[in-house]
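User: Hi! I'm working on a homework problem where we have to compare a predicted structure to a textbook description. Could you give me the structure for the chain below?
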Amino acid sequence: MAGLNLAKCRKIVRAAFAKGKEMGLQPLSVVVLDQGGNVLAFERQDGASAGRFQIADGKANAAVMLGMPSSRAMERAETQPYAMNALNGAYGGRFVPLSGGVLVKDKKGMIMGAVGVTGDTSENDAICAVAGIEAAAFTAEA
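Assistant: Happy to help. Predicted structure tokens:
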């Protein structure tokens, strides 16, 4: 299976957007990061509000840097806000502990990177990220 190459990243973005359209969501923004937190792809739908790159990137970074979906980081933020504040500082502000940051795993369970989606509710963002990841033949951990 090919890694997170440009073709796979484009498939993830297109499928996430398609899921958002199917669900009637607000305009979305999608970022795909590799396992080191480097941006491989980013697209913002027409009408998406400003600042969406930073939110999508922060959600994906929360997932990839902790090795867990950003929804779990959100749960930790509710009980340990001091820890999440420290992590956000350590990662230079690129850490948003809200649902919508989903890990991308290969068939062996290795983390390949993460997808961050923003634009609608965090739960709906995560649904779109999962749809994109699965369309590209990877496993999503949301």
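For your comparison, note the following. Residues 23 and 124 are 9 Å apart (CA to CA). The helical segments are 6-23, 52-66, 70-79, 81-90, 122-135. Good luck with the assignment!
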